[in-house]
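Listing S7. Sequence submitted for prediction.
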Amino acid sequence: MKKLLFLFLLSFSVKAQVFILEKNPNWDKYQVVIEKKTINNSEHVFQLKNGQVSAVKLFYDDELTTEFKPNFDENSNLKSLEIKFPNKSLNEVQLIDYELKYNKNGLRIEDNNHKYVFDKHERLIQRFTKLFEESKGTKSWSESYFYNEFGDLIRIEKTSTEKGIQYIDVEEFVYDDCKNIKQITRNSTPERNYPLIVLGGEIKDKTAIYEYEYNEDCIWIKKYLVTNDSKALLISRELIK
């Protein structure tokens, strides 16, 4: 039962973000990316086509638990998603249509649950749920995004309401030379009790520092969490051309 509960929570927590690999012009050299996560003994196998994720298989304890097939529009927005549970007790296929709407420039401004706002440089500056809008900020959440002069995302401000209390959670980012995040600083109003444990077992500290090992294409193959004078391996990758 514990394993099935983990799979249910994990599959629904990853489906919105599991198809995102960090930006890198060299992804089109690769056909498969295998990520092994130490935190929960899980493995993601990404199938790539023209540098974009075309399918994902999720393994837990070496058992195939979930398969995802995303369908993107021409701007790499997720249009629909097919989810398959190969496990006999969860043998079903789900199809999610995100019902995208666009502005005159072809930018996604709405899906079935969210709305999106862009600046004059066509960068996303706000995303919020329709429930947040309908409730005038008393339910659900909204996020605002801030960039530096190079177009790097350096700050996210999230407004949410939990048990009648409105929180503002801020994350600030520092990048390394390969444009991967090497430090995240978090603060909240009212102040939260860090570290936070989120869905899937991830732990969010007030400050998180990361180190990477890279291949010749500036794609990381190992990601570490640095604490004091030690570092722990979070994810290792195998890249197949």
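Caption to Listing S7: primary sequence and predicted structure tokens for the chain studied. The CA atoms of residues 145 and 220 lie 25 Å apart. Residues 1-15 have pLDDT under 50 and may be disordered.
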